[in-house]
Amino acid sequence: MAAQWLFCNALIALLILFIAPHLSKSDDSSTQSPGFAYSWMDDDDEFYPGDIATIKVKILGNYNSEEYKYPFNPNITVNGSMGNSSYVTDVHSDFGNDTNNWRILFKPIMVGVFYMVIDDEHFRVHDNSLHFHVSPADSYIPPHFMFRWLNSKSEFQAGDTATIQVIVSENFNTKTYKHPFNPNITVSDYDGKNEKMGNSSYITGLFSNLGPAMNKWELHFIPIMVGTFHVLISQENLNVSDTSMSFIVTPGKIYRPGGIVSWMGGVNHFAFEAKAELLIIPKDAFGNNLTYISENWRIHFFDLSATDAKGENAYLWNLQQPGWSRFGGFEAWFIATISGNLLLHVKDKNQDLIGSPLTFTVDHGPLDVGNCVPDWTIESKSFQIFSTMETFITQRDKFGNLVPEFYPFDFDVIGMKENLSLPIGDVQFQEVAPGVQSLSFKLLIDGDFTLIITDKDKKQQIKDMPHEYRVYVGYCDGMKSIVNGSGLQNSVAGEVSKFSIFLRDIYDYPSPFNLITIRVEITLPLISLDVDPHIYPVDPHNGENEEWERWNSDFEVFYTPEKSGLYEIRVYCGSVPLNGGNPFTKFVSPGKVNASVSRVVKYESRVSNTVLHGVDVQLMDSFSNPVLIKASELSKLTLDPDEINRSFFMVVMFVDNRDGTYTGFYMPMILGTYKICASFEGKSIPPCPFEVTTYKREDLPIAYGLDVSVWEDESIVFNVLVNDYFVGGKAKVVEYQQPGHGSLLQHGDLFIYTPFKRFYGNDSFPYSMSDANGNNASSHVNIFVVCIPPQFVSFPPQLQADEDIFSPKFGGYSGFEITYSDSTENISIMFTAQHGSFSLSPLLMQLWDPMWKEITVTKMEGREGNFSGEDTLRVTTMNKHGKHDWDIPVIVNPINDPPFINVPEFIMLENVTEDEGFLIFDRQRDNFNFSIGDPDHLHFTGNKSHFRLMFSVEVSSGYFSANLPAELTSTTELKLKNGNSNQWQPLLTFIEISRRFSLKAKAIRFRGTIEDCNTLLQQILYHGDEDGGVLTVSVNDMGWYGCYPEDCQEMMSAPLISEATINLIRKMPVDPVIAQSLMSAIVIEAIILTLLVALLIFFTCKCVFVLLHKKIKNQPQPQSQNLHHMSSTKDSSDTITGQPSGLSKQLNEESKLG
Fold this sequence. Notes:
Blueprint: H1 2-23, E1 35-40, E2 46-47, E3 53-60, E4 75-78, E5 81-82, E6 88-94, E7 103-108, E8 112-120, E9 125-127, E10 131-134, E11 145-149, E12 155-157, E13 162-168, E14 184-188, E15 196-197, E16 203-209, E17 218-223, E18 227-235, E19 240-250, E20 260-263, E21 269-270, E22 275-281, E23 303-307, E24 313-314, E25 317-324, E26 330-335, E27 340-348, E28 351-352, E29 358-362, E30 373-376, E31 382-384, E32 388-394, E33 409-415, E34 421-422, E35 428-433, E36 436-442, E37 447-455, E38 467-472, E39 482-484, E40 491-492, E41 497-502, E42 513-514, E43 518-524, E44 529-531, E45 534-537, E46 551-552, E47 554-559, E48 565-573, E49 576-577, E50 584-589, E51 599-602, E52 606-608, E53 613-618, E54 637-641, E55 649-656, E56 661-668, E57 672-680, E58 683-695, E59 706-711, E60 716-719, E61 731-736, E62 742-747, E63 750-755, E64 761-771, E65 776-786, E66 791-794, E67 799-802, E68 817-819, E69 828-833, E70 837-840, E71 855-858, E72 869-879, E73 882-893, E74 900-902, E75 906-908, E76 918-919, H2 923-926, E77 931-933, H3 935-938, ...
Helix pairs in contact: 5-7
């Protein structure tokens, strides 16, 4: 069995050794490369010499530049000539971050038909599907364009029209060139940065006048931002690129509603009588700041007002607008005298400035006793004895502001007859609200008195002091007294109403009073109207008692309400309110319609025929109250034309507008002038008649309005009448209102709208237009202001970083500040770089606060390693409407990286002979990229021929031969193949053939370029014995790592050395993974086999023991002996096995079974 086991292990080992070489071969298949498709831009493959030819590049599949070591950079070959040649020039590619817009561009310069090949070995691209045709032009001279400012004017005010004249060479024929002249206008700032093409935040209203007369060609635009700007006029297919134009923009005229108002210094909390200052920054219509220089020191005045928390006007004391301040705007100030939380409104012609209204708070002043005001609970000077007199004292400063806290007051009650002060024992002072306290006491003595309220020192009285009042003896009870009559019921305006008053005491007995103590208040709260009543006593004895007119308990009240509405009636008997103090309410309805008072309030004097038109009529009674009539009475309202046109006039029944006005509809059938009268119940309503002139329907204008959109940082020019209908070819805007959130300037039919800073959303304004015949129409312009992507208002002009490490090491780059108008929307901010990666710093960032922002630049996996030089950080901000890009240069300082050596661990020697030699590094045989290099060489900014390495190759046994260029003789050293010395020796003698020399040595080293080193590496021939040897390759980078920015001598460091050894062997070694797997299998198999053998031995011994026991049991013996033997067996079994007798019994039973 052991022999079988050994035989199986040997067989497995042989199989593994046979399969191992095949398993150890590496799969060098690379990631599936994407495909590329090519087509002519606009399918245009015909050109004239000097045109710009454009090829669109489309990516087929997934392309991620981070996954590939080399970028996509194809070679362009035209008729066998690569790159710029006698066929094409200016060959370049435009492969930006947006892969959807990849292009290849060149200029054909030779006439003929040409074939193209586009190839890139790294991406296995080889495309020959494109060809193009270049046609000759008669006496071809490229057209030339020149540009100049009209009248040499290059300085403008914002809002002016800038005009560029186009001067065209005589050889330009629009019929010869298939591309019309339609240039792009790009404007950049003073530094030539932040280029923006077309309408932008720099210019608007861009249009061109390129008609048939080329001598009148002009380009027009409206500058809107202040500053100095450069203009680029370009058109690729005509080879136009002019950068000679620049212009200066100064602020435009002041746009008063566009000014920005703020508190001076941000202070909006003022002490009493402090000076409150505010600053108004004037702007033009495009948001540019104005200065005293641009305005020639002109002073502009604005409307300033204040309101309190209730919306009531608050007086601004000593308001001043002195003019320009030292801070660059208009200054205004006032003395803060009205306390509380207030709003300051700064307006121009009823339109708020930006930032208005401003909130501010003013503290109250000290208490002014003389300005404190008593407020009586009952406006009466007659009080019933035993009633309570109460007044509320409002504590005020000298400007009438409420002063909180509880201040002590004193008072005196003086009898007018005795002129003596009376003692009052139950006086109560109580604070009922901050700054308001109640003074009350009980009236126990009848007579005439004077009340005087003063400060605690009795030096100063409050307002309206002294206060005279009378206490009379009476017992009128407010709940027992009766008020009734038809005058308390609903009535009609203009009718006399009457009700009665019956004064009773608590026991229901009549309580006579003097007429002067009876007070009736009748009010219409809706319009704050008071009605004067007439009160008369009632003679209960028909003239028998002469005292009834002076002293009575029954009275009648007469009054005439003239205005319709809900009235309140209050009745007082001296200081006692009747009906428990609750008012009586009644509704007064309008009277009958009075046609002479009613009016025709709305109609159109110019209308179209065969169309319904409306006339609004206001029905009123004799007291000018609007009258609401029943639906059944609408037929009493009529519209009647004159007799001549009655047969050509159609009337529709009036419609109730529920507000006292009624709209009647009519349709004139023929053209002409109609005289129309409105009437009610046959009575004419003025004006009667009113004239209406009818026109054809198509002769009247129709205003449809307009919808436009604009970015929040730009302006838009539009014709407000572009959608409107009118005849005669002429119409004009006769009236319009300013929009609420932007400026609006009119230039004839054109309007320029500019949204105020940081505004986004919907804006609108109404307008009215008139045609040539004076017919009007009205509509609205709706403007949607689009929120721009986030903007960087501050960012560093340049960043510094170090190659392959975190930069900066602590914190992050500072100086990034971003603004965005819509703080509720989710936005995206992305940092990308061509050769590195950026990430946000873990340090705290402050969002939505114009403070510091921090980012960190770090090398991330998947980016290009060992990069140094100039990189670009692109900051992309995005919202739902678009994106913006900013490019920030990054200077990456180089660091020295060790050279690399790409060689395998071993090379199989096959058919090696000492005479012929063996090519060690054969790419075709081994499918391996044998090479050496240095990462710093790729981005070496100096002359790459100056980048040299010290390269050495040495073999442990045998020797090798090589063929080197003659330029390396001065730096080449070697170790002789037959020498015993291990020292490097210079090259003394050599034979040069075709500027190359051959040598045979045990080791060689020289100083050369990377190309020289790789050339030697790939042609080494090994001459050795059958045992092979060890080849050692060493590379010293000499300390080179870059020449950035200028001096290469400064960019040196300690040299770095890389070394690799290659085993030259006869047999293929077993792969370490397979050898380890084989050893593991053998160990596991040995363990399993050992367990099986142990198990087999166990059961064998068990069977032997059972058989032995059975044999002893079956031998014949006498009974006594058997008994003795059984006993002995029992004892011996216990002794031998060391087990209890129970186990022996179990074994006996098992043996029987056996």
